[in-house]
Each structure stands twice: as C-alpha cells, then as structure tokens.
Prior knowledge:
Blueprint lengths: L2 H12 L16 E4 L4 H18 L3 E5 L8 E7 L11 H9 L3 H15 L9 E7 L5 H13 L4 E8 L2 H12 L6 H17 L3 H4 L6 E5 L4 H10 L6 E5 L14 H7 L15 E4 L6 E5 L9 E3 L1 H19 L15 E5 L5 H9 L3 E4 L4 H8 L4 E5 L5 E5 L1 H18 L3 H15 L7 H15 L3 H5 L7 E7 L7 E3 L4 E4 L3 H9 L6 E6 L5 E7 L3 H19 L1 H4 L2
Parallel strand pairs: 2-4, 4-5, 6-7, 6-8, 11-12, 11-13
Antiparallel strand pairs: 1-3, 2-3, 8-9, 9-10, 13-14, 15-19, 16-17, 18-19
Helix pairs in contact: 1-4, 2-3, 2-5, 7-15, 7-16, 11-15, 14-15, 18-19
Amino acid sequence: MKDEQRLLLLHSSSLFSPPQGVKLSYGTAGFRADASILKSTVHRVGILAALRSLKTQSVVGLMITASHNKVTDNGVKIVDPSGGMLTQEWEPFADQLASAQTPEAFLSLITEFVEKEKIPLDGVQSAEILLGRDTRPSGESLLEAAKQGISSILGAIALDLGILTTPQLHWMVRARNKGMKATEPAYFEQISSSFRCLVDLIPNETKSSKMDNTVVVDGADGVGGEKLEVLKSMLTSLVIGVRNTGKGGGLLNDGVGADYVQKEKVVPRGFCSNDVGLRCASLDGDADRLVYFSVPTNSSRKIDLVDGDKILSLFALFIKEQLSILTKEGTEKLDNSYHARLGVIQTAYANGASTDYLKQSGLEVIFAPTGVKHLHEKAAQFDIGIYFEANGHGTILFSESWLSWLEARNNELGLASEGSEQQKAALRLLSVSKLINQAVGDALSCLLLVEVILQHKGWSIHKWNELYQDLPSRQLKVKVVDRTAVATTNAETVAISPPGIQEAIDAESAKYPKGRCFIRPSGTEDVIRVYAEASTQEAADSLAGSVAKIVDRFLGFSSSQQ
C-alpha cells in the first residue's frame, strides 16, 4: 500500500470515533442502530464499498436506510454488482472494520484484508459507488460520512443519486453493470412501459367486465409514498390514491407501513371505517415490502390481510398459466420447445395453507432457511424462481438462458402466428421479466404486477383473498441460556440438537388437527423462536405454549440449574 493511501486512511478514520461499548453486526439488513451512533460505521462502510468495487472491478451501491425501523434509527448496507446483497464472505470483515477502536487497528485490518483478497489498492484502478438514502432526517449527514470514507480510497468516486427507495438503488447498480441506463427516470420508464404492455395484452372478455381499477396505498410516510406520486402520473389504466406520503407531517413507520399492517392486522393511520370495500395496499419505510388489505366492516379497525404468501400465489398462478399457453401444441410445428422449470420458494414461516394450495395447483415448492439471501439463492436455481416471505418481501427471477430462448421463441411466433394466444403469452412473460425488479423485492414494481394480474383475471381483492384460508398461527420467544444449543436442518423445520427435542415437538404437534410447529434460534439474541399453526386459533396458541415449555425444559434457565 502506498504511503499516500496509508496516510489518507489514517487521517480519515481519525475524524470518526467508533461508539464505545456498542458491537454492531452486519446482517441481511446491513448495519442498523440509533442514527446518533452510526457516523463512524457508515464512514467505514464507505471504505468497504470502495474496496468491494476495486475487488470486483464493477460498480457497487451504498444505501442509507433502516427500512421499517422507527425514524430515529438508520442503517447502511452495500449492494453487490449483481444488484443483490453484499456477499456473505465479506460480512465478518465488515464487523471487524466497524468495531476497530483506533485508526492504527483499523489500518492494520485493511492492510491485511487487501493483501489476502489481492485488491489493487495502488490508485491506478478506479472504483465507483452509487449512493442513495431514504427520507430520514439523519440520512444527509450519514451520507456525507460515507462520501468521506469513499474518498479516502485512491481512485474511488462516489455518485450521489439522492433520495431513492432501496430497490431503486439495487436496480440501478444491476442496470449499470449490465451496460444499461441506470437513472431514476429509466427505472420509472421501464416499469411503467412494461405495465402498459401487460395492460394492452389483457383479454378482451376481461377488459369489458369493467373491474375497479383503483388502489389506495399507504406510503408509510416514507420514500415509497413520495416515489409513488411520480409513478402514478405515468399510468393511465390504474388510479392510485396515495396516503401517508410523508408530506402531511406524519412520522415514518409510526402506525403505518407494511410491517405494522402485517403484524397488527389493523388499518394504518390515515385509513378508517369509511374505506370499507376499497382495495388497499401498504409499503414499508424503504419500499421493499408490500402487503394488501381490505376493511371488512365499518365497526372496527380490523382488516382482512392479503400477505406475501397470497402475492406469491397470485404471481405463481399467472406465470404457470402463461407457460401452459406458451407450450400448448399449436397448429404450426415449431420444434424449438423449452419446458421452463418454474419453482416457488418459501420459508418455514409461510402459512401451511399457502404451501398446500401451491402444491395442489401443480407447482414445485421448495423451502429455504429464513432470510432473503437464502430465498434468492434458491430461486436462482430455476428458469423462473418466485420467492416471497409473508411480510411482503419477494420477487421473481428469470434465468438469462430461458429469457434468451423466450426472445427467440417470441420472434418465431411473430413470423409464424402473430397475434396468436401463444405469442401473447410470450409477450406477457417478457413484460413481467422487465416489470419485476430481479435484483431484490420491490414494492412499487410488485404493486403494478399485482394490479395488472387482477385486471387480467377480472378479480376483486376479495376473490383473490379467497384462494385459500390461512391456518391460525402463533409465534413465541423463549429465553434460553445459549441459543447455539439448537441446531436445525431441512430449512430450519427440524431440530437436530439437543437430542430428543424434535421427537417431543412432533409428539405435541400430532395432538392437534393440522398441527405444525418448529423452533429456531434467533440470529441476534439468546432466545429460541417458536412457530405453531393448527386448525383453530385456540389450538395454535396451545401448541405454541406446549412447545415453549418443551424448549424451556431442554434449554431454559431451569434446565441449567439441574
């Protein structure tokens, strides 16, 4: 490492003291904490982002957000060149970097890591980092800290893209590395034009049914509400009413947003009993989650929730339907057939009724451990992989090889049978691949896809919600001496240690109709999470309580004193 580079790093890190007595850990969401203690961490993540760009010889992203957390929190995460999350191999180094207590210890860590990873830190190679932030008041000063971190690496350039949704930044990083236009107007143009294509391909018999094309959206008083105001002006066949845009003095994520609506199952602030019968949706604070809901009666705040599992089911049904039209034997013989492998990926937290419904619909369902990274990885193994968590985070991935085949097939069909049902199916699938954000879950693009599929099918939110009835469930936490005593397998559905615990859980689950229960260690605290579902709420509560007692018997504080 050049002396100039060494001095730059020492000087830069001496300006930001790490918080005392606080150990931050880089997870799926990056680093998150109270905004007042984050400056040093964000500065160091700026340096990390520059190193990542040098290592990959690609553009990377850095996002300042704390998603659905309260407004006084903030966070920072890196977007890898693919548009996905920072590779897990770099997470331990991110933790070490954040907690280094002196500029000298910090420099020593970087020197060692740069040598190990063979990163060209000579000032000859350039690095480029795209920066974005959400609407939190603390975002501006944290962004400045990130810029100072980036500028302490020779040859590194920070490009500030201003206030964005998290998925917009992921989309832009992916687009930039694919040689496409990576601007906010390009993002809006791609998703709005793909939506228009899908609207144009709606069957005439459905078009004439005059279904309600209005959706009312809770913007969580965050960046999503702000961006939705821009997007809605670009759409003609959809009327979007936006509430909680952040402009009316409401606090971000305070009694609003997808996380609140999904967990509490009540109307968010700004909605009331007068909204009975409307199709409503909720974004989270940085617009990477989406849930729908309707208000069933004007006598209470309770809602009928349409969660990520139901969004997944809607997407999977539509894509399966288009694939079956595409591969039907037409009158013309084209020997260019490719039976796409369509996969649906869920976690053990997905409601059992949704899994049964998907399997009964002839779909291939596989499970992944909890966390978007695991779901994304599994989805990428299919020609078309769809994943969602119940919280409303998910997307659809299309393999490059299958999309190339689809483009060619569409061209063939255009010559042989333009305007045929098969060609329309090919065009719909191509449009979905452009509308959906393949980098990460994106509430804005998913909202448009839900809306156009409902229009295509002529379905109300009530018809959609009736696809299946969720099984009642209950989640509990049990404090334990050591959470690492529990090890799981089969995508966290089976506990393999301590010995005998799974057999005890199975015996308890078997006592209840449709009983299912699993346990898993928390990633952040010494607790074991218990999830139970059964045919009635009373049974689910009882099963969860019984299994919590089993966990306590095997691992709780009483067990350590025996």
